[in-house]
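In the previous chapter we treated chains in isolation. Here, by contrast, the input contains two separate entities that must be folded as one system, with a combined length of 633 residues.
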Amino acid sequence: MSKTIVCYKWVKDEADIKVNPDLSVDLSKAKGKISDYDKNAIEAAVQAARLLAGKSIGLTFGTPKTKQSLKDALSRGLEEVCWINTEAAAEADGIVTSKALAAAIKKMDDVSLVICAEGASDTYARQTAPRLGALLQWPVITSVSKIQINGDILSASRKLDDCIETVKVKLPAVIAVLPEICNAPIPGLKAVMAAGKKPIAEYQAGDIGIDFTSKSQVSGLKAYAMNRKNIILEGDTSEKIASLVAALKKEGVL
Amino acid sequence: MWYMTEERELMRNIAREFTEQEVKPFIAEMENNHTYPRHLLKRMGELGFQGLIFPEEIGGIGPDWVTMGIVSEEIAKESNLVAILLMLNTAICAETIYQLGTPEQIEKWVKPAITGDVNLALCLTEPNGIFNFSENQTRAVLDGDSWVVNGGKIFTTNAGNADCYIVECLTSEPNPETMMGVSYILIPADTPGFEVGHIENKLGWHGSSTGQTYFKNCRVPKEYLLGPQDTVFPIIYTNLEDEFIMFGACCLGSAVGVYEKTLKYTRERIQLGKSMFDTHQSIRQKLAQMYSDIEAFRGMMYMTLAMKDKGIDTFKQAFICKLQGATLMERVASECIVLHGGNGTVKENGIERYFRDAKMCFLAGGSNDTLLDGLSSLI
């Protein structure tokens, strides 16, 4: 049976992140959640699996705390989840994450489609889908806002800066979807109860067989302070433009 | 928390998502235009919130009163009113029909209430009050195979937005000593002779439709009698238990909601390079006192809900839940307005609304003074 895999990430809830007056970031009280964009990707996977008459499976790479996400993901319509459980995930960079996900995908048969969100709501690094495609040697489509599936041909609309590009690929493929791919419905309480009965596969670091050492490291984390000047430019359009250029020069931007 | 499980955490998160995405954006419409949130009641049915206290055989997912408390608390953090309307439809109205109704009545009114397709209302209060029923004017007379109802009620919540009204009527000569003479009659909204009168413009709970309902020769089949004839008044009193408990959960949620907003505000408002929270000991102490009061009441609240789930009598605790809940919410909301300074009084900032809604919780469904009287007879 055809499998549609959706990769999702367990992130800190930004609503719980405290920024101190010195712009240091306090994550100590932040609870976890499935990245908001990943919720749309999960729904896209559920819909795609239906079109492929197959099964939708969630795949996540995370620390033991990620266990909290499994039933949540299952309550959103997925039929199974697969969890790569290792403390190494806390320090993993884009390449380690992609290698771990690719290794887990290679263990599964009949995978037709892998869906990732364009980026995660914590770093929005946008690395996972392109790297996964390279590791699996499958075609990759990013910035996807709409998909159609006809047999083993996937047609995707890519939302680019200045146009909508339509791309067709033969499955299997990896796609990175934008939030507008579909709405992420709020699951009902009955779905939560049903989630407890769905299968969960768990891999430990040793089962994956990759080197989890990240080549990049986070050296510091600081909040961004937005200090607005609140300058209102007067006059007609040409005067406003001249004032804007003068103001930007004065600030050293130009 | 001792009452949380993995499943309940998820259900709380779903209530939080619903509140953030669907309730919060509608608050201004309810506040400014007094628009009734019918679509939110429907959504709470679809999501399963309305089925939490009912068993699976009639479409529910319970009974699970602790989870009902958790969901209500989460919604009430943003909107006390929406949580109260959930309580009204489920713990008050649908529960009354479920406890007293025939299988046909449960099929017709409770099952669609669980899915959010039907809204219900309870018509108790008359101008002379609720509990002095012998002075009530609304009467039902059996005429052949029909009940004919005449009279009127005030302060009917969901007036004009309910599909069926549970109407307390005198069906024989009232006897205050034996509490005999009172029955419930179900009156569908489309019954000829049923009218909705003036909808009150209230201090709080903007968006609820609380108003007058009139019954002029309303004729319904005799099968629309709900529960026993003439002897329903003692049952009304005991049914209030569920209402009082859920009032407590709604008040707890709103107290937590306004407290959390205020804690965030005092931590983020910088004066002379430091936050209000870090600068002023008095502010920290006020917030710590609020937190202490909230957590103490949380213990009482969830102990009572857990007792209910275990089938332990909670009649006395129910009185305490409403009394303490409304008092807590009013006190916390009042303090939070002060901590926000002038901003606390600005309607758009959404802080003063908690105080207005607290006054509603204090008075609606049996005022705190009435409840103290009731509780005094139990101690």
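Chain A touches chain B at residues 18, 21, 33, 68, 71-72, 75, 186-190, 192-193, 195-196 (CB under 8 Å). Residues 228-254 of chain A form one domain. Compare these points with the single-chain example from earlier in the chapter.
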